[in-house]
Predict the 3D structure of the following.
Amino acid sequence: IVISVGTGEPLREWPASSWHELIKKLEREMHDEVEQIVLVGAGQREERCIREILAYGDLAFTKSLCNELSIPELIQVIRNAKLFIGLESFNGHIAAMYKTPQVSIMHGATNLYQWQPYANPYCTVIRTSLSCSPCYFVSNCQHDNACIDLSTEVVFEKVKKMLHRL
């Protein structure tokens, strides 16, 4: 499983503690279907997030490839993944392009029809929509950025369902 924790806008990102909890549940409850979990990302912000995820400890078969892959290598890692889990980002579009099974966590301020992973029949999008969605103005949110408040359990259930479909 390849997990991409970053996106171009920090306010659209899921917290490191939620990523850690999801990975821990995957390792504990889905160990028969999950051989290895690889965290990918680029840049200092994503590297800090991945270090924080790994610093929580207790992750048996999770590895970071943050800042270690060229773009062609990243493409091959995502292309050959059993499952891709990520936010709205370049990496999610790579997964869609190769029809890699994916669970995409999208911020509610984003226009789903414009930015969701395109033409991937094996993609599940998870998002919290408020009455103001899509607003396009994450930095001026009047609802304390509640559009990214997704429980780990909701994401885990979608990932589990996707793994069972495979």
User: Anything to note?
Assistant: The beta strands are 2-4, 37-40, 62-64, 84-87, 102-105, 123-126. The chain has a mean pLDDT of 85. The longest helix spans residues 16-29.
